Amino acid sequence: MSMIEVIQNATIWLAWGGSGLCVLTVLAYLFRWGIKFRLTGITIFTLLLSVSCWAFVQSYSPPLNVEGYKYAPIVYDNGFDLVVAQASNDFPEEAIKPTLLQIAGNLKGGSRNGSQVKVRLRKIESAGDGISQPIILGELINDLKESKIIELPGRDYSINEDLSESVDNDENYSLENYE
Fold first, then answer.
1. How far is CA 133 from CA 8, 66, 171, 173, in A?
2. pLDDT greater than 70 at residue 161
3. For the residues 152-163, what does the mean pLDDT come to?
4. What share of the chain is helix, strand, coil (3-state, %, to 5)?
5. What's the mean per-residue pLDDT of the chain?
6. Largest Cα span, the chain
7. Of all residues in the chain, what percent carry a pLDDT higher than 90?
8. Domain coordinates of the chain in residue numbers?
9. 39: helix, coil or strand?
10. When you count CB atoms within 10 A of the terminal residue's CB, does the N or C end of the chain come out lower?
């Protein structure tokens, strides 16, 4: 029996129990039993538990499972429009798309206010002594407003230019030039 089925059954049992306690509480007030205030508290608490379980069952949506998915932990989420997951160095290429789809499908609205959330999958490669470079393996957009996932066409995310060339140019961008 799954957890959601247990909670559904608990909702029914708590509702019936609360109803029975409600009848006992009314009888306690009618016959002036000394336990009437304790029964009042127990009845209210039992009915509150029943309503809470019912609300959880109504709001619960099971997580999306995509075949071919491989675990990639989310390492960055700005809470609005960007989620980045970290792939291992031996991450198979055929698992990129299912992993992105599963991560995007399991995002909840929350504070994102219907925005388009970019979901990226990256891995880190060593670029030298103590230097690492992120390599974007794939990216897609989850449009929370329209409840659809937009796949981006294949892109080349690698850096092909040598960064030292842009630093050695003739222009000097120091703060002294702007004073």
1. 49, 29, 26, 24
2. no
3. 55
4. 45, 20, 35
5. 84
6. 97
7. 59
8. 3-59, 74-156
9. helix
10. C
Q: What confidence score (pLDDT) does residue 9 get?
A: 96
Instruction: Identify any residues that bridge with 124 across adjacent strands, giving them in sequence order.
Output: 134
| Confidence (pLDDT) at 22 | 97
H or E, element range at 134 = strand 131-143
Structure tokens at 156: 């080349």
- Residue 167 tokens read as 């630093």
Contact 86, 123 (CB under 8 A): yes
Task: Give 11's strand partners.
Answer: none
Gyration radius of the chain over CA positions? 28
Please give, one letter per residue, the 3-state secondary structure of 53-106. HHHHHHHCCCCCCCCCCCCCCEEEECCCCEEEEECCCCCCHHHHHHHHHHHHHC
Q: What is the pTM of this model?
A: 0.64
Please, which residues have CB within 8 angstroms of residue 2's CB and are 6 or more apart in sequence? none
